[in-house]
Write a structure and sequence with these properties.
The complex is a heterodimer of chains A (118) and B (113).
Chain A (H helix, E strand, L loop, with lengths): L4 E3 L2 E4 L5 E6 L6 E8 L3 E9 L14 E5 L5 E5 L8 E8 L12 E2 L3 E5 L1
Parallel strand pairs in A: 2-10
Antiparallel strand pairs in A: 1-3, 3-7, 4-5, 4-8, 6-7, 8-9, 8-10
Chain B lengths: L3 E2 L4 E5 L4 E3 L2 E2 L5 E8 L5 E7 L5 E3 L5 E5 L4 E6 L8 E9 L6 E2 L3 E6 L1
Parallel strand pairs in B: 2-12
Antiparallel strand pairs in B: 1-4, 3-9, 5-6, 5-10, 7-8, 8-9, 10-11, 10-12
Classes of the chains: A mainly beta (118), B mainly beta (113).
Amino acid sequence: GAGVSQSPSNKVTEKGKDVELRCDPISGHTALYWYRQSLGQGLEFLIYFQGNSAPDKSGLPSDRFSAERTGGSVSTLTIQRTQQEDSAVYLCASSFQSGVAVSSYEQYFGPGTRLTVT
Amino acid sequence: AQSVSQHNHHVILSEAASLELGCNYSYGGTVNLFWYVQYPGQHLQLLLKYFSGDPLVKGIKGFEAEFIKSKFSFNLRKPSVQWSDTAEYFCAALGWNTDKLIFGTGTRLQVFP
């Protein structure tokens, strides 16, 4: 089966523009995560969706960042009025988390979207 | 707050050298631990994981990690590294009262032939 896919793979945008990044998780996976990977900063958690629960937005760095997950599947991360410090690789991951079977908590990562703000 | 620490930010080794990458977590209760690897230009992928049982966990490509509860550690080891092990390695933890993985900042490993 297909893995996690993300689009676009690369995005160059001008400062101040809005961007949308898309994630298609593995079919049937209930949980979806967004991370940001910056050089020397490791993996920074952004937002987490699990089933029909309210998303955990505790990692979003500012109100310019938002995400939604439609129909429990595809997710879109939106960055408004982009700034140069938003330049990073944005990673999406999904997992099938039953809540009981902890072995299901393995996250599968997509290839990422490299965002460059000029 | 729950956290994962990786103290080695950049490790440089020659082929055949032994490797140990440190990982410490701050959870007080039951914890599940993971090591992920990101080879240059590739996705993050799972290297190994610990849920329960034998604290010495074997992973892919000859890697292993040992869960030492008293030290809150889950160090990654490999007795003899290869040039192809050049990658970035991330430790992650899942606490008993959360369903969100927390990642460390990663360790960049460079292996020279």
